[in-house]
TrEMBL record:
A single cellular component GO annotation: cytosol
Similarity comment: Belongs to the OSBP family.
A GO term for molecular function: oxysterol binding
Residues annotated as signal peptide: none
Pfam families named among the record's database cross-references: Oxysterol_BP (PF01237)
Database matches in PROSITE patterns: OSBP (PS01013)
Gene3D superfamilies recorded: 1.10.287.2720, 2.40.160.120, 3.30.70.3490, 6.10.250.1430
Name this polypeptide is given: Oxysterol-binding protein
Amino acid sequence: MSEQAGEAVPAAQKSSWTSFLKSLAGFTGDLSAMTAPPFILSPTSLTEFPAYWCERPELFAAIADGKTEQARALAVLKWFISTLKGQYTSRNESMGSEKKPLNPVLGELFYGYWPANAARGGKTTLFVEQVSHHPPITAYRIENLDKGVTLTGHSAQKTSFSGGSIIRETSRACSSDCIPSVWGVRGIPDHTSRLRIDGLSYGSPYIELAETSYIQSSTGWLSTIEYKGKGYFSGKSHSFKATLTPPSHTSPHVIEGTWHTTSKESHSGATFHDVASPKEEITVAPIEEQGEWESRKLWFGVAKGIREGDFESAATFKGKIENEQRQRRRDESAGGTTWELKHFKHVEHDPVYERLGKLFKANPPTEDGYAYLGNGPHSES
C-alpha cells in the first residue's frame, strides 16, 4: 500500500483493507455479494438512494411548467443533470470517500417527502421498495400530484473489478409523466450507465461516471449525455457533454460543464445548471414511528455502530439481520411460497421502455420492469 493509504485507511483496518484488495483482484462475478471491511461501509441502505432523484424538488416540479416540447425536454435534462452530484459525490463530501451502501433485504421499504411550498406547489413524495435481493433491484415512485409530475422506475446493479477499479453497471428503466398527458413528457432517464470507483489503492474511493446516458421523450426530443471524466493521465473530473436533439435532428442544444458544479449552453454561454446551493434533505418519520421493514429502523443498530466507529457492534447487528433473512428464504422454500411485493408488481415487458427505446435504438431493446400499484402511504404535510 502507498503512503497515502496510511492516511486514508484507519490503522486498525489496514490489514483488512489489504486483504480486501487482494480478494477483489481474484474475484469473479458480482461484487455486491462480497463483504467489505467495516470502515468502508456506509450507514445508509441502498433503498434510500432514490431520494437523490429529488433533492432539488423545485427542478422536478418545474418539468410540468414547460409550455413547449422543447422547454419540457430542457427541464427534464436540467433536473437529471442536477441529480448527479447527490448520487455520485455526496458521500465523498460527507464521509471523506465513497462508501459501500448497506445491501437491502428483500421487502425493505423507504418512505419520505419534501413538503409543499410556493416554489414547487404541492408535497413531493417518495416510495421505495427492495423488490429483489439477488440481484439487488430497487423500485421507486416519486410524485408531486399537485403539479402532475411523477417518476416511476427501478435500478438493478452489477459490480465487477477491472484494471484496479470497481466497475458498476446500473440498468435503469424510468418513466417521467407530466399531466395533462397531451404534453407527452415521458422519458427513460439513464436507462443504462457505467461508472468507475477509483482511488482503491490508497483507501479513498471516489466515483467517475463513464459512457453515455439517454433521455428519450415521446415527443421525439432526445438527450444524449456523454461523460468525459478524468482519466489516469488527463481530463477533468466529472465532465460531461449533453446534446438535446429535436425530432427534426437539426439545430441541437449542446450543454457542457461538470455535473457536480455548473454547466453552460454552448450557443449562448448561459448557465444551464448550478448545484452550488445546498440540497434539500428528504423528510422521514422518526424511527419510533417506522415499521419494522422501513430502512432506518431495520438498520438502526448497524448504522449506529458505523457512525460511532464501533464496527464490532455493527457487524453483530448486520449478521443478525442477514441470518434472519436467510432463514426466511429457507422457510419460504420449504413451504413452497414466495415473497409478496407490497407496492410494485413485476412485469415481463415494460411497454414504455420498449416504445421509447425504439426511437433511439436502445440496447437492450426490451426490459422487464416493476409497475407501481398506487398504494403508497401519503405522509401528512
